[in-house]
Write a structure and sequence with these properties.
mainly alpha, Four Helix Bundle (Hemerythrin (Met), subunit A), 86% helix, elongated
Length: 200
Protein backbone atom coordinates (compact mmCIF):
# COMPACT_ATOMS: atom_id res chain seq x y z
CA UNK A 1 0.00 0.00 0.00
CA UNK A 2 1.40 3.37 -1.02
CA UNK A 3 1.98 6.01 1.63
CA UNK A 4 0.47 9.49 1.37
CA UNK A 5 3.93 10.88 0.59
CA UNK A 6 4.47 8.43 -2.27
CA UNK A 7 1.03 9.19 -3.72
CA UNK A 8 1.76 12.92 -3.56
CA UNK A 9 5.10 12.40 -5.31
CA UNK A 10 3.42 10.40 -8.07
CA UNK A 11 0.79 13.11 -8.51
CA UNK A 12 3.48 15.81 -8.74
CA UNK A 13 5.43 13.75 -11.31
CA UNK A 14 2.27 13.21 -13.39
CA UNK A 15 1.52 16.96 -13.29
CA UNK A 16 5.07 17.76 -14.42
CA UNK A 17 4.78 15.31 -17.34
CA UNK A 18 1.53 16.96 -18.40
CA UNK A 19 3.15 20.41 -18.24
CA UNK A 20 6.11 19.18 -20.30
CA UNK A 21 3.77 17.80 -22.95
CA UNK A 22 1.80 21.06 -23.04
CA UNK A 23 5.03 23.07 -23.41
CA UNK A 24 6.21 20.79 -26.21
CA UNK A 25 2.90 21.18 -27.99
CA UNK A 26 3.13 24.99 -27.80
CA UNK A 27 6.57 24.76 -29.42
CA UNK A 28 5.05 22.63 -32.19
CA UNK A 29 2.28 25.19 -32.75
CA UNK A 30 4.86 27.98 -32.98
CA UNK A 31 6.84 26.09 -35.62
CA UNK A 32 3.62 25.47 -37.53
CA UNK A 33 2.84 29.19 -37.31
CA UNK A 34 6.26 29.95 -38.83
CA UNK A 35 5.55 27.55 -41.70
CA UNK A 36 2.23 29.22 -42.44
CA UNK A 37 3.80 32.68 -42.14
CA UNK A 38 6.31 31.70 -44.84
CA UNK A 39 3.54 30.31 -47.05
CA UNK A 40 1.52 33.52 -46.60
CA UNK A 41 4.57 35.64 -47.46
CA UNK A 42 5.27 33.53 -50.54
CA UNK A 43 1.66 33.86 -51.68
CA UNK A 44 1.63 37.65 -51.26
CA UNK A 45 4.84 37.97 -53.29
CA UNK A 46 3.58 35.61 -56.01
CA UNK A 47 0.13 37.16 -56.52
CA UNK A 48 1.51 39.11 -59.49
CA UNK A 49 3.11 36.02 -61.02
CA UNK A 50 0.15 34.91 -63.10
CA UNK A 51 2.24 34.25 -66.25
CA UNK A 52 -0.65 35.29 -68.48
CA UNK A 53 -2.94 32.79 -66.76
CA UNK A 54 -6.11 33.23 -64.70
CA UNK A 55 -6.17 35.47 -61.65
CA UNK A 56 -7.98 35.03 -58.36
CA UNK A 57 -10.88 37.07 -59.71
CA UNK A 58 -11.27 34.54 -62.52
CA UNK A 59 -11.09 31.49 -60.25
CA UNK A 60 -12.24 32.22 -56.72
CA UNK A 61 -15.85 31.96 -55.60
CA UNK A 62 -16.52 34.07 -52.53
CA UNK A 63 -19.75 32.17 -51.59
CA UNK A 64 -17.81 28.89 -51.79
CA UNK A 65 -14.99 30.22 -49.62
CA UNK A 66 -17.54 31.69 -47.20
CA UNK A 67 -19.23 28.28 -46.95
CA UNK A 68 -15.88 26.71 -46.09
CA UNK A 69 -15.34 29.42 -43.49
CA UNK A 70 -18.70 28.75 -41.85
CA UNK A 71 -18.03 25.01 -41.68
CA UNK A 72 -14.68 25.57 -40.00
CA UNK A 73 -16.04 28.21 -37.60
CA UNK A 74 -18.89 25.95 -36.55
CA UNK A 75 -16.47 23.04 -36.14
CA UNK A 76 -14.40 25.20 -33.80
CA UNK A 77 -17.54 25.97 -31.81
CA UNK A 78 -18.50 22.29 -31.57
CA UNK A 79 -14.98 21.44 -30.40
CA UNK A 80 -15.47 24.11 -27.75
CA UNK A 81 -18.68 22.36 -26.69
CA UNK A 82 -16.72 19.09 -26.45
CA UNK A 83 -14.21 20.82 -24.17
CA UNK A 84 -17.01 22.10 -21.93
CA UNK A 85 -18.38 18.55 -21.78
CA UNK A 86 -14.95 17.35 -20.60
CA UNK A 87 -15.01 19.87 -17.77
CA UNK A 88 -18.48 18.60 -16.85
CA UNK A 89 -17.14 15.02 -16.97
CA UNK A 90 -19.76 14.02 -19.56
CA UNK A 91 -18.15 11.40 -21.79
CA UNK A 92 -21.12 10.81 -24.10
CA UNK A 93 -21.60 14.52 -24.70
CA UNK A 94 -17.88 14.90 -25.42
CA UNK A 95 -18.01 12.10 -28.00
CA UNK A 96 -21.17 13.57 -29.56
CA UNK A 97 -19.64 17.02 -30.06
CA UNK A 98 -16.41 15.53 -31.39
CA UNK A 99 -18.36 13.51 -33.96
CA UNK A 100 -20.17 16.68 -35.08
CA UNK A 101 -16.77 18.36 -35.38
CA UNK A 102 -15.56 15.51 -37.60
CA UNK A 103 -18.60 15.84 -39.88
CA UNK A 104 -18.07 19.61 -40.24
CA UNK A 105 -14.36 19.09 -40.87
CA UNK A 106 -15.08 16.50 -43.55
CA UNK A 107 -17.49 18.94 -45.18
CA UNK A 108 -14.73 21.57 -45.25
CA UNK A 109 -12.21 19.16 -46.79
CA UNK A 110 -14.76 18.00 -49.38
CA UNK A 111 -15.44 21.61 -50.42
CA UNK A 112 -11.71 22.29 -50.70
CA UNK A 113 -11.13 19.20 -52.85
CA UNK A 114 -14.06 20.24 -55.03
CA UNK A 115 -12.54 23.69 -55.47
CA UNK A 116 -9.12 22.28 -56.36
CA UNK A 117 -10.63 19.79 -58.84
CA UNK A 118 -12.62 22.58 -60.51
CA UNK A 119 -9.54 24.77 -60.86
CA UNK A 120 -7.44 21.94 -62.30
CA UNK A 121 -10.26 21.15 -64.77
CA UNK A 122 -9.95 24.78 -65.98
CA UNK A 123 -6.22 24.27 -66.58
CA UNK A 124 -5.48 26.30 -63.45
CA UNK A 125 -3.42 23.77 -61.53
CA UNK A 126 -0.33 24.50 -59.43
CA UNK A 127 1.94 24.14 -62.48
CA UNK A 128 0.16 26.93 -64.40
CA UNK A 129 1.82 29.92 -62.70
CA UNK A 130 3.73 31.06 -59.66
CA UNK A 131 0.52 32.56 -58.29
CA UNK A 132 -1.30 29.23 -58.50
CA UNK A 133 1.69 27.30 -57.11
CA UNK A 134 1.67 29.57 -54.05
CA UNK A 135 -2.11 29.28 -53.73
CA UNK A 136 -2.15 25.49 -53.83
CA UNK A 137 0.80 25.30 -51.44
CA UNK A 138 -0.83 27.55 -48.84
CA UNK A 139 -4.42 26.34 -49.04
CA UNK A 140 -3.39 22.72 -49.62
CA UNK A 141 -1.10 22.71 -46.57
CA UNK A 142 -3.96 24.01 -44.46
CA UNK A 143 -6.30 21.36 -45.88
CA UNK A 144 -3.74 18.67 -45.10
CA UNK A 145 -3.56 19.92 -41.50
CA UNK A 146 -7.35 19.79 -41.23
CA UNK A 147 -7.35 16.22 -42.57
CA UNK A 148 -4.74 15.17 -40.00
CA UNK A 149 -6.79 16.94 -37.31
CA UNK A 150 -9.88 14.94 -38.29
CA UNK A 151 -7.93 11.69 -37.94
CA UNK A 152 -6.68 12.81 -34.52
CA UNK A 153 -10.22 13.67 -33.39
CA UNK A 154 -11.34 10.24 -34.55
CA UNK A 155 -8.54 8.69 -32.49
CA UNK A 156 -9.68 10.75 -29.48
CA UNK A 157 -13.21 9.43 -29.91
CA UNK A 158 -11.77 5.91 -29.78
CA UNK A 159 -9.80 6.70 -26.63
CA UNK A 160 -12.87 8.18 -24.96
CA UNK A 161 -14.92 5.13 -25.89
CA UNK A 162 -12.40 2.55 -24.65
CA UNK A 163 -10.41 4.34 -21.94
CA UNK A 164 -13.02 6.75 -20.64
CA UNK A 165 -12.60 10.37 -19.63
CA UNK A 166 -9.30 9.90 -17.79
CA UNK A 167 -6.93 12.77 -17.02
CA UNK A 168 -4.39 11.78 -19.73
CA UNK A 169 -7.16 11.52 -22.34
CA UNK A 170 -8.56 14.91 -21.28
CA UNK A 171 -5.07 16.43 -21.49
CA UNK A 172 -4.61 15.12 -25.04
CA UNK A 173 -8.03 16.43 -25.98
CA UNK A 174 -7.20 19.92 -24.73
CA UNK A 175 -3.98 19.99 -26.77
CA UNK A 176 -5.86 18.78 -29.84
CA UNK A 177 -8.34 21.60 -29.26
CA UNK A 178 -5.48 24.12 -29.42
CA UNK A 179 -4.43 22.65 -32.76
CA UNK A 180 -7.98 22.74 -34.17
CA UNK A 181 -8.59 26.35 -33.09
CA UNK A 182 -5.17 27.30 -34.52
CA UNK A 183 -6.29 25.94 -37.92
CA UNK A 184 -9.44 28.05 -37.64
CA UNK A 185 -7.31 31.17 -37.11
CA UNK A 186 -5.09 30.29 -40.07
CA UNK A 187 -8.15 29.86 -42.28
CA UNK A 188 -9.45 33.30 -41.29
CA UNK A 189 -6.09 34.61 -42.50
CA UNK A 190 -6.45 32.69 -45.77
CA UNK A 191 -9.98 34.00 -46.30
CA UNK A 192 -8.86 37.57 -45.58
CA UNK A 193 -5.57 37.55 -47.52
CA UNK A 194 -6.30 35.13 -50.37
CA UNK A 195 -10.00 35.07 -51.19
CA UNK A 196 -11.26 38.56 -50.33
CA UNK A 197 -8.53 40.50 -52.17
CA UNK A 198 -8.55 37.91 -54.97
CA UNK A 199 -12.23 38.43 -55.68
CA UNK A 200 -12.56 42.11 -54.89
Amino acid sequence: MKTAGAQKALAVAAAERTEDKAFGFWIYLMTDAVIFALLFATYVVMTVGIAGGPTGKDLFSLPHAFGETMLLLFSSATFGMATLAVFARKRRATIFWLLITIVLGLGFVAMEISEFAGMIAQDAGPDRSGFLSAFFALVGTHGLHVSVGILCILAMVGQLAFKGLTDPVASRLFRLGLFWHFLDIVWIGIFSIVYLPGVL
